[in-house]
Amino acid sequence: MSTGPSFAPSEEQQLLISEVRRFSTEQILPGAAERDAAKRFPLRLLREMGEMGLLGMFVPEEYGGAGFDMVSYVMAVEEVSRADASVGVTMSVTNSVCCWPILEFGSDDLKARVLPELASGEELGGFGLTEPGAGSDAGGLRTTAVREGDHWILNGEKAWITNAGEAKYFVVVARTDPDAGNRGLTAFVVPSDVPGFSVGLAEHKLGLRSSLTAPLFFENCRVPAANLLGEEGQGFKIAMATLDHSRLGIAAQAVGIHQRALELARDYAREREQFGRPIADFQAIQFTLADIAVELEAARTLTRCAAAVAEAGSASGDAGRLASEAKLFASEAANRACQRSLQLHGGNGFHEDYEIARLYRDVRVTTIYEGTSEMQRLVIARRLLS
Ligand code: CAA
């Protein structure tokens, strides 16, 4: 099915989309249902994606990356997520919340040590901000970091960490000044092999079951001082700037799921016969398809527009607001699309043998992680009013 003329890709982007679409359709999509049922992490596919440059998309060539722009990135995440949203989030997290802040705020030494391994797909990355008691209120986190000679000693717990168990590097935000509120937080790159670091049991999730999600524990965890990201006290701003950027990855993931929900609805409407003819002949079904399609184009266009603004850099702060708008709209639209597509499937949509059932479960988290819809509205409104 044509993806429509929205935000026409350049020749280079067109080539990238064709390559990623072919790989996603031939290699990722066929095993998605089986991996979901078995909760099996797609390590082999990720290695291949690393070789294609899909896990270090912003990382420049000097650090072994592919050096792509933001619009190319959202196009690639969309294609991968269309095939399997679990692979989409794994890709998005490594690129957006691990590689990007290291690239943006890391020292030259840190970038040279860490980025080549991530960009090649040899190792995966993660992000540790959320805690059991600090979700939407990210600044309320309690994990501590205390300086001891050439190391920082971390103690605490992180929750809902994507790629935990497989990732080698985590960008972790911890409290270094108990009395300084949001300004008392500092970011670190924590390798998974340092003493005092451990990963808890994988979460039993409603969707995205072949992606990894688990808690991280720090017990007198020793992180080299050279792994500090930015400066002491900048952790909250680094986390917020990272989320401004990474929310575009989740918007793109939602667009990919939305695209697939439309394809499944259209195919089912053509095949399924009731009252002696394909249900696609009925206007009620046609209107459903039209509604899914219109919101898809709107979500895709907003996501690519927000990515283009982020790429250009925006001194006015529009980039962060647009990223939140894209994430809010695309995730809510994709939820509506999966609901409509499932309804169009009738009783069969309620059966796990039909792909729409997995999409319906997978799409649910897109309005929650990397900031709930409510937090996106807060970010948007604050920027409008400031
Ligand atoms: N960029 C840079 N600085 C920023 C910023 C941004 N986007 N947003 C805020 N700041 C700065 C402010 O300027 C302010 O600075 P000063 O102290 O110098 O004045 C400081 O940070 C505090 O800002 P706020 O007063 O706005 O902070 P707040 O405590 O009210 O929180 C919030 C704002 C928007 C609610 C924020 O906490 C938030 O985004 N919460 C949602 C958390 C979230 O998205 N979590 C996702 C977890 S990651 C994940 O899900 C990954 C995954 O696995 C897929």
Give the helices and strands, then pairings.
Elements (H helix, E strand, L loop, with lengths): L10 H18 L3 H7 L4 H9 L18 H14 L1 H21 L2 H12 L4 E5 L15 E5 L2 E12 L4 E9 L9 E7 L5 E3 L13 E12 L3 E2 L5 H37 L1 E2 L2 E2 L4 H30 L5 H27 L10 H8 L10 H13 L1
Helix pairs in contact: 1-4, 4-5, 4-7, 4-8, 5-6, 5-7, 7-8, 7-9, 7-10, 8-9, 9-10, 9-11
The CATH superfamily of the largest domain turns out to be: Butyryl-CoA Dehydrogenase, subunit A, domain 3
Biggest β-sheet strands, sense, barrel? 4 strands, mixed
Radius of gyration: 21 Å
Q: Which parts are unreliable, with pLDDT below 50 for 5 consecutive residues or more?
A: none
Report the bound ligands by name, code or SMILES: acetoacetyl-coenzyme A
Task: Provide the number of structural domains.
Answer: 3
- The level 1 CATH classification of the largest domain is Mainly Alpha
**Largest sheet strand order:** 1-4-5-8
CATH architecture assignment name of the largest domain: Up-down Bundle
What can you see in these coordinates?
With 386 residues, the protein is of the alpha+beta class. It has 3 domains: 11-124, Acyl-CoA dehydrogenase/oxidase, N-terminal domain (Butyryl-Coa Dehydrogenase, subunit A, domain 1), CATH 1.10.540; 126-233, Butyryl-CoA Dehydrogenase, subunit A, domain 2 (Beta Barrel); 236-385, Butyryl-CoA Dehydrogenase, subunit A, domain 3. 51% of the residues lie in helices and 15% in strands. It has a 4-stranded mixed β-sheet with strand order 1-4-5-8. Strands 2-3-7-6 form a 4-stranded antiparallel β-sheet, covered by helices on one side. A two-stranded antiparallel ribbon has the order 9-10. A hairpin with a 2-residue loop joins strand 2 (144-148) and strand 3 (151-162). Helix 4 (70-83) runs antiparallel to helix 5 (85-105) and helix 7 runs antiparallel to helix 8. The relative contact order is 0.12.
